[in-house]
Amino acid sequence: MLALLLSSANEVMPTEALVQELWEGHPPVSAPTTLQTYVYQLRKLLLRGDREADGPRLVTKHGAYLLAVEDDMLDAVRFERLVNAAQRDLRANKLEPASAALCQALGLWHGSALADVVTGSRLAIYTTRLEELRVHATKLKIEAWLRMGRHHEVIAELKQLTAVHPLDEWFHLRLMEALSLASRRHEALEVYHRLRYILREELGLEPGSEMQELQRMVLATGHGPVLGRAAPNGRRGPALPQKADCVL
């Protein structure tokens, strides 16, 4: 129940929605009474855990409930704010601040979202969204590091990510780029052929045009595009020095 209320923190949650989620659409006759017991126990827990005036408060409003929480107390809110800030920095080519924000955002994660909570349909949607945002943040961090010239440092992480997301072409593309820039041409080409095999076997598709173009570049020149900080005139500048400020 706490997870459900936190997923809609500072928003009114109708009693019916709570009942449907807690009993997965098949509430017993005693559900309203049981829900009141849960609310009572949760209020006691919140009072025992935080007696500060600005601590979480469970408020009853016209047959509905609202969990009032300061945004800074919620990791999910802090995570999204950091990712949004990093995206703005990346668009402005502020690579180091973007990298730092993304490292901080991803550092808030400790396993899967709500891993120890039995989820109904509403919470399942919420956790799926959080996991998608986590993947998005990971991609932004890898993009930042590649643009900073830190291709050696992302290879191990990208190998793991391509195994976890075998149909995600973006991770394979970035792994090919990193390997080719690290003068590991044969491994870069192996990534292409492995992805091509998976796509053909699973979906009957060929790799996308960007992946095919990168393969041609690696075959012709031994490496993909040279990544680095964009210079003011639009051309790529020299890669930034490597800094071990975040472990992937």
Automatic annotation (TrEMBL):
Record keywords: DNA-binding, Transcription, Transcription regulation
Molecular function via GO: DNA binding
GO biological process entries: phosphorelay signal transduction system; regulation of DNA-templated transcription
UniProt protein name: DNA-binding SARP family transcriptional activator
Species whose genome carries this gene: Nonomuraea endophytica
Span list, region Disordered: 228-248
Keyword Transcription: yes
Similarity comment: Belongs to the AfsR/DnrI/RedD regulatory family.
DNA-binding region: 1-70
Matches recorded under InterPro entries: AfsR-DnrI-RedD_regulator, BTAD, OmpR/PhoB-type_DNA-bd, Sig_transdc_resp-reg_C-effctor, TPR-like_helical_dom_sf, WH-like_DNA-bd_sf
Residue stretches in coiled coil: none
